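hiii, so i know i said id send this last week but things got crazy w the move. better late than never?? heres the sequnce for the chain we talked about at the cafe, plus the structure i predicted for it. fair warning i was half asleep when i ran it
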Amino acid sequence: MIAKISVCLLTLSLFLTGCETTQLVISPSLEDSEASPRTVEKTHRVSAALLSSQFSRKLEELPTFVIEVENHGERSLIFTTSSVKLSSGDQPVEAYSIEEYTAKLAEASHREAEEEGGRQAEAALRTSGSVSTPAMQDNSAAMAKITSANMASRASANRKVSQQLNKEITELIDIHQINPGDSKSGKVLFHGENIKANLPLKLVVTLEGEPYEFTFSVTEQSQ
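okay and structure toks below
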């Protein structure tokens, strides 16, 4: 009997342990109340900050760093996404290009617009049904009303998508020329698959061959 009880308790313990999920967390991030962008000054001044501590493969949760470069030199700097490298231990972490991110964002946004358009068309149909006349009960009239409402809703949703796309894309680092005394800032988004817990996460911004290094920690958090 004692042996049976022990086995049951062990099985229950394994079951409960298996129910826990873990989330990788990077720190420090701008979510922390006391955190501020880290800054390195050499020939130029570079600041880096993590936008959110938690990340995933979802577009809205990609590992995102905000980089600001101040040109303290006497000639213009060219600052691009390729100037920024991230590594987890010795493993490189790939950044999203403008083209890759734009394509993924457009796909996800238009899918959301289609769903939103369908929801609005359905709501419009329900509203019109409550005040319809007998003539509107004709199938052709009903189908015409559905089509019209759907097209209008999709057009509205697509306008919102376009505005959101433009906002997101303009915040990303593309190719910046920074004149002496000026500064530029932008976001760099990374694929999170190669980021591992308990390995140093190193961000390196290289300007005119000079590296500016920032180190973040990655831990596992049970949920």
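btw DSSP finds three helices and eleven strands in the chain. thought thatd interest u
miss u guys!!
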